[in-house]
Amino acid sequence: MHLLLSTFSNVPILRIFLFFSLTIVMPPLYQTIYSSELTTRSQVYCRDRCSTPDYQYDFDDDYYYEAILMNVSKAGDFTITSQSNINTYGYLYETRFDPFDTSLNLLMEDDNSGSNEQFKLTTFLRPSTIYVLVATTFSPHVMGKFSIIASSMSSISLTGISSASGPGSVTFSADTIKQTL
Fold first, then answer.
1. Which burial class, exposed, middle or buried, applies to 6 when counting CB atoms under 10 A from its CB (0-12, 13-18, 19+)?
2. I need a labelling partner for 100 at 20 to 30 A (CA). Which of 12, 42, 65, 120 fits?
3. CATH top-level class for 28-180?
4. What is the mean pLDDT of residues 28-53?
């Protein structure tokens, strides 16, 4: 510590200089990367107008998507971003995703909060809770490779949900989650 006494317009000023070192230890940052590709064999859904009567429905506006099961080991803040040459759009659902009612169980969605037309979702997630991330595109019928990067202070697993599960909602039980860990 250094002391310095000086005056300014006949008013004494006492200046104290402290020199110290501070070390902050940060817990490790976990990153999980999931890579896939949207193709003509990918699942499709209507996204915004699922309740439109069939005779008014325009199948040219379908969107390719991939549903991804997310499991977290400990509660915490997570950031989920996409990385691709295509303009991606991300949706996060709790419990299940129903491609015929896309507002059901929707927690959040994002289009361009990440860089280069990529989605970025930041949220608090809990273990033993079923989360489904839906990775799709901003425009219909766009195909291409993409990666999902999940970052947090605790680990997270990302598991693609196969199209072999058939049409309809994607649902998982607590037992299914335990089996994927």
1. exposed
2. 120
3. mainly beta
4. 82
pLDDT exceeds 70 at position 23: no
pLDDT tens digits, residue range 126-145?
999 999 999 999 999 999 99
CA distance 16 to 4: 6
Question: Amino acid identity, residue 21?
Answer: S
CA distances from 34 to 43, 47, 140 (A): 17, 23, 22
Q: What percent of the chain has pLDDT over 70?
A: 66
d(CA 176, CA 116): 35
Q: Token match 């209507």: residue?
A: 46
| pLDDT over 90 percentage in the chain | 55
Domain boundaries, the chain: 28-180
Nearest Cα neighbor of 155 from 7, 21, 24, 29 is: 29
Q: Is the pLDDT of residue 178 over 50?
A: no
How many residues can be counted in the chain?
181
Encoded tokens for 45: 């859904």
The pair of structure tokens assigned to 87 is 């303009």
Q: Give this prediction's pTM.
A: 0.74
